[in-house]
Design goal:
Oligomer: single chain
Distance between the termini: 53 Å
Shape: elongated
Structural class: mainly alpha
CATH topology: Arc Repressor Mutant, subunit A
CATH superfamily: Winged helix-like DNA-binding domain superfamily/Winged helix DNA-binding domain
Largest sheet: none
Order of helices and strands: HHHHH
Helix content: 55-70%
């Protein structure tokens, strides 16, 4: 037996059009594409550039703080570092 509730289309459309989370995600993807285009001539993605800038310190930083700065878990950070080696 399902406990589903039918949501009217008007409610779905209103949520779509006013959802801050959705709009921020869309803006972030659009901005990421712009940076990817700008960095393409040097062979980097915006994620790789951000990663390199977070590592640019006199001493190698610990993985935990770098992952936190980039809002990544450490496993994802490790995978992101591999292409840059």
């Amino acid at each position: 037996m399902s406990n589903s509730v039918e949501i009217p289309l008007s409610t779905t459309l209103m949520a779509r059009d006013t959802c801050l989370c959705l709009h921020v995600q869309r803006a972030a993807r659009a901005l990421g594409r712009l940076f990817d285009d700008a960095l393409r001539p040097v062979g980097l993605t915006n994620g790789q550039f951000s990663l390199m800038m977070s590592l640019n310190r006199p001493e190698p930083p610990p993985m935990g703080p770098v992952a936190a700065l980039l809002a990544m878990d450490q496993t994802t950070l490790t995978a992101a570092l591999k292409p840059l080696q």
